[in-house]
Amino acid sequence: KNYLENELQDIDGINTIKEYFDKAINEKDPTYLLTAYTAETDFYTTLNVDLAKLQLENLTAKENLSLTYYIGIIARHPKLEILSYTGKVFRGMMITANDVKKYKVGSRILTKTFSSTSKQRNVASTFHAKKTDKDDRLSTLCIYEIRNPRTALDIQQMSLFQYEEEVLILPYSAFKIIDIQQNENRSPQIEIKLKESEPW
């Protein structure tokens, strides 16, 4: 709750988020913390921006403990075990040509934020569609193979948009890039396959 009170006072939808956090505390039910994440407020955007700035070695610093607790509850609470998901998921996005160069087959990446994905390729594809012809970014589809049970949670039933069949990849999940396909004449222009690996 410190994170809400100290960092999120001015975000859109803060009262809705506070209600979900209060329910999570009063009913001892961590699913409300996930519902807060999926709600149509600025919470998930602000949370991910703050997580992206966080350095791994500073996770246990006093000022970061609220964020760390939030991640820890979602990643490890026994009541969320039933949401564990393994299998293939898809994430569509737009990235620059410079960003593409950073991805190399055989290299590993560590997610720092919560990443929304879908069990359905066609749903993920809507997120890499170009909005204008002037957009010089490349349409990109990432295909993740989730292998460990608590790396991702199937949150379809608590999402406002159940048709998206959303699966949430948790922060600090390690993946190895196993393939990159490029074809500028079709969409997606870039397809990146990633397989979950053990953290290094």
Automatic annotation (TrEMBL):
What catalytic reaction does the record list? L-arginyl-[protein] + NAD(+) = N(omega)-(ADP-D-ribosyl)-L-arginyl-[protein] + nicotinamide + H(+)
Organism domain of life:
Eukaryota
GO cellular component terms listed in the entry, alphabetical order: extracellular region
* Cellular compartments annotated: Secreted
Please name the top-level EC class of this enzyme: transferase
What EC number(s) is this enzyme filed under? Answer: 2.4.2.31
Extract the GO molecular function terms from the UniProt entry.
NAD+ poly-ADP-ribosyltransferase activity; NAD+-protein-arginine ADP-ribosyltransferase activity; nucleotidyltransferase activity; toxin activity
Q: Which InterPro entries match?
A: ADP-ribosyltransferase_ARG, ART
Main location group: secreted
Keyword annotations from UniProtKB, A to Z:
Glycosyltransferase, NAD, NADP, Nucleotidyltransferase, Secreted, Toxin, Transferase, Virulence
Per the record's keyword annotation, is Metal-binding included, yes or no?
Answer: no
Which SUPFAM superfamilies did the record assign?
ADP-ribosylation
| PANTHER family for this protein | ADP-RIBOSYLTRANSFERASE, SECRETED EXOENZYME S
Q: Which family does it belong to?
A: Belongs to the Arg-specific ADP-ribosyltransferase family.
Instruction: State what protein this is by name.
Output: NAD(P)(+)--arginine ADP-ribosyltransferase
What is the species of this protein? Rotaria sordida
